Amino acid sequence: MMAARQSDPRAMPPAAPGVDLFCRVIDNYGDIGVCWRLACCLHHDHGCPVRLWVDDLRAFQHLCRAIDPGLSTQIHAGIEVIHWSGSTPDLEPHEMVIEAFACDPPSHHIARMPGHSKLWLNLEYLATEEWAAGCHGMESPQPDGQRKFFFFPGFLPGTGGVLREQTLTQQRQDWQSNPAQVRRWLAGLLPHDETARALIEQPQLQIVTLFCYPDAPVAELLQALGRLPGQMLLLVPERVMLPALPGAMASNLHLARIPFLPQPEYDRLLWSADLNLVRGEDSFVRALLAGQPMLWQAYRQDDEAHLAKVEGWLRQTRAPETIRQAWLAWNRPADTGTVDLLEQGLRCANRARWHTFFQDFSTYLDGQHDLASALLAFYYKQTGLSG
Q1: What whole-number distance in Å separates Cα of residue 287 and Cα of residue 275?
Q2: pTM tops 0.85, yes or no
């Protein structure tokens, strides 16, 4: 009998590194939305043990309904969730420590981190500006000698990529290939709106989703949509604050409120629509991955600094002029030209050029490295381990 063959431990790849991911909920649901999705990608796609430290579990609960805000520690989807408060446990740090958006991990955690196999990263906000590639991966030496690095998610080569699950494209294609399933699911979001449920059965209905900040020019959007041909159903999640709206809307437009959806269901909503209007980072990326015509509202900043992010993405992608004008109109304070610019862009959104542009960009993202994979590749490179 032949002896059992012994495996060479030197040839075996190392176990996936453990990850401590720290998140402070500051800006609506954007911070925790990115962190929860990243935690899931690292654990489910790459096998990393993940601890997610969150200071606001009630906000987290809106994205993951199973979260219990009263617990100090809990496990969901295989991920350990720790309530980051003044009495957080003093635990041995994992191999990779990620502070999301410069949130500063607890000092006792940092003090335990020195070691050649530890990597400390500041995960920055999504960068659309051209300078991001030059700053991505830069080291920020600490007073105690520890090494900390900046990590910039982004669309350009040389950045950290965007959050994308390995099975996402197949999930989207499977969903969109079953229109009857899509209609049933949409109707289930509107149990008490008979008008909307009846509209969903119309084959030529155009579905529009609206997720925006309170300062969005929504009244101008409604005017622009009302000038377009065809019947439209505008779906707005609860908890999205809208400005005062006109008493009567165009006859071809029906606005309906839907529940605030957990992340997997929000993806399905984006896949089900003909036009998506989204806000913030996480929803921006998910709408791009949906491959449908869309408008993005960046978080408004003083002196209109947010327009640099919008312009940066438009330049990177060489977006058609109709997209550029509509996006800028959606991100600026409303004026006398807002309705016309939105109408002109949205008329084109019904045409092949907008569809082709966004489908092509979604395909481009499918071919790029994703954020979780890029983080792990950076870890292996910096620690000298083999991934």
Answers
A1: 9
A2: yes
Do 210 and 255 sit in the same domain of this protein?
Answer: yes
Q: Where are the alpha helices (DSSP H) in 201-255?
A: 218-226
Length of the chain in terms of residues written: 387
**Own/partner long-range contacts of 247-253 (Cβ < 8 Å, ≥24 apart):** 249/222, 250/222, 250/223, 250/225, 250/226, 252/225, 252/226, 252/228, 253/222, 253/225, 253/226
Q: For position 358, what pLDDT does the model report?
A: 96
How much is the average pLDDT of 367-373? 94
For the chain, percent of residues with pLDDT exceeding 70 = 94
Q: 251 and 179 share a domain?
A: yes
**To which residue do tokens 């016309």 refer?**
340
333 and 283 belong to one structural domain: yes
Rg of the Cα atoms in the chain: 23
Short-list 354, 203, 204, CA closest to 291: 354
- Looking at residue 135, its pLDDT comes to 86
> Residue 259 carries which DSSP code?
P
Q: What is the DSSP string of 126-139?
A: PB-STTHHHHTT-B
How far apart are alpha carbons 346 and 351 in whole angstroms?
9
In the DSSP assignment, the letter for residue 384 is T
Across all residues in the chain, what is the average pLDDT?
90
- Domain range for 242 is 168-366
Which CATH number does the domain housing residue 172 bear?
3.40.50.2000
9 domain-assigned: no
Residues 349 and 376 placed together within one structural domain of the fold? no
Q: Is residue 5 assigned to a domain? A: no
Tokens standing for 365? 């993202």
Q: Does 374 share its domain with 360?
A: no
CB 96 within 8 A of CB 89: no
- Rounded to 10 degrees, the C-alpha dihedral 104/264/18/138 comes to -50
Angle among Cα 287, 350, 228 to the nearest 5 degrees reads 115
CA distance 263 to 286: 10
Give the residue numbers marked as catalytic: 31, 281
- Which one, of 296, 291, 297, lies nearest residue 271 by Cα? 291
The pLDDT score that the predictor gives to residue 151 is 95
* Domains of the chain: total: 2
Extract the tokens encoding 349.
Answer: 């959104």
Residue 299's closest CA among 222, 214, 372? 214
